[in-house]
Amino acid sequence: MRNIRRRKERDLCLLRNSRQLQDWAAKPGSSQLLVKGSFRTRHMLRDFAADMIELLQKEKRVAAWVLQCKGNKSDSFDTAHALKQVVYQVLQQSPGVLNERGASLTAQRIQDASSAEDWFSLLGSVLRGNKEVYLLFDTTAFADEAQKYRWTKRLASLFDELRQRHISTTMRVVFISCQQAVSRQLQADLETVIDVSSSQAVQRLQSRPLLPSKQATSINGV
User: Fold this and answer.
1) What is the per-residue pLDDT across 164-222, written as a single tens digit (0 to 9) for each?
2) CATH fit for domain 2-217, picks 3.90.1150.10, 3.40.50.1820, 3.40.50.300, 3.90.25.10
3) Number of CB atoms found within 10 A of residue 124's CB
4) How far apart are alpha carbons 59 and 71 in whole angstroms?
5) Which of 38, 50, 114, 138 is most buried (CB neighbours < 10 A)?
6) Is residue 144 classed as helix, strand or coil in its secondary structure?
7) Could you read off the pLDDT of 161-176 as tens digits, one per residue?
């Protein structure tokens, strides 16, 4: 048991310090990342998500997430519900972004929102004023409809919309998936995919040399 625990801790450390992850986080402009695993590595993926959220909060970054609720399928999120969660979380961390009129209009739009497109539009609006926003989605939390949704394409469109509206917010979107079908769909449109489907795959990750002192804990590695 002790050896298994040590191996899991080692694999998680390799993932956190992988060159792919650090290079992705340092890349300019909005981007998406998939960390794909398997049923055997699902716990490491969840630990990675928890570690990433803890680090972002420690660094006082704006971060929102959708995670699996105690493995209960009845608590799964459809697409609109998942987006609603991240919109509310971003708003809670951006109290000074909206003026009184903007806050009133946003409140009305939230009340009227029902579809995924409504919530994507709202997400684009509430990002304004934030330099950088991280979103993390655990796809095991998604209902069947959300797992089939073309998240990567719609998010790429949102990145374009933000540029056209001169909203300078950088979005960092992370998907974690331990389901092959979901991973295949997501990775088809992504430049950065980190494979941790087995210990052998984790061992092949190229690590960036650890940095001294608190620099080593920075999400951007700088």
Assistant:
1) 999 999 999 999 999 999 999 999 999 999 999 887 888 787 655 544 434 444 566 43
2) 3.40.50.300
3) 19
4) 29
5) 138
6) helix
7) 999 999 999 999 999 9
